[in-house]
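Chain A, query sequence.
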Amino acid sequence: MTNLSASKAWDYLFDKYNIIQSIKKDGYYEITANQIKEFKEPRLMAKWDSSESLPSVFKNNKVNILPNSRRSYILSDFKLYQELPISSERVINMQKVEIPEFESINIKNITSESNAINLLVLSKILDDFLDEDDNVATFNGRMGTGKFNFNVDRHRGSPLNMTVNKAQCEIDGCFENDNSVVILEAKNIVNPDFNIRQLYFPYRLWQQKVHKPIRLIFSIYSNEIYRLLEYQFEEISNFSSIKLIKEKNYSLQDTEINNQDLWEVYQKAKILYDDNQDKTNIPFIQADTFERIISLMEILNDEPITTNKISEIMQFDFRQADYYFNAGRYLNLFKKEAIDERGVLVHLTSLGKKVHNLNYKNRQLKLVELILNHKIFHRFFFETYTQGTFPTREAIKIQMKEYNVCNEGQIDRRSGSVLAWIKWIFSLTNI
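Chain A, predicted structure.
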């Protein structure tokens, strides 16, 4: 049974213990680690950092999970995820950063969250964001939460009151300065939201231990850009009272891209592919977040990894992992290699390695060129650039059907990816 996917294992658990019925009747279901272990290791079954990574039975029934001790968890229709805002202030907030020259720091190879934190401190980005000098790293790692009570909102019914007693939480970084204690959660993958627990449990633990105010920072490092967001909880005992109070973005290289740069790429780009499904073995794109393709490229530059590992690192289900691999393959960035019992390895192509090693500006423009090598994107780039408005989904669907890029039943879903990629191209001028 341990070879089951987490999603399938939860299907069996929900069925065996009538979990949905219990939640409808009592508002929650408490499940033990031993119950979960009947099908799969609990550590692989209860940590979902983004709502997109949740098992299907959770998504379909609006169910979520929180630990309440080291040996048990509460399942309910919790609202656990905080959506990351679409940054509309990048032009104002982007700060250019000078990095000290150290032989052991390579900004082209910052693939771990711990290295991203090291660079965050070394570059003085953290000091600037906090408006506090001399932030000293004091602790990180796994620790017990202690005991505390809190309310958490639900999709149906009133908030649930929970008690957590010695559950485990992991803190990526903690810093102290003259005026505050800073708890930092770091990511090197772009997701649409994050689990509030990652900030709330460390906050409640250290709020009982220190007298200084606690500042909570969520950091995303991807594509050589830091995005920092500061949150606070308006009510200490209310998990759902999280509020964004500050956001800023920092670049490690020149990010200046203008409309003329994009137009020059368009003029240089040749239409190499018409994407007619009858003539290609590469599926048409179904990957809405282009930044995730870049994140995956950065991860693969470190070493080839299996498709299973992509799912784990990127917090994807297997189907999503395949979508994003195929999106990279569509641009000739990724390739697969069949290996032994470990599965299938995904590599960067020689082109993928060259693109990864470009500086920020040239990397983005090369990616734009690779997109515009495809007929449908070449067409819609020109229309968007000259008309000043994005195409409608309907217009995209008509063109997809005319070009025969995918089956008719796939057109509606995949047209959203086309529009998202076009928007990504033009968003580069706002960074």
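The mean pLDDT is 91. The first strand starts at residue 29 and ends at 32.
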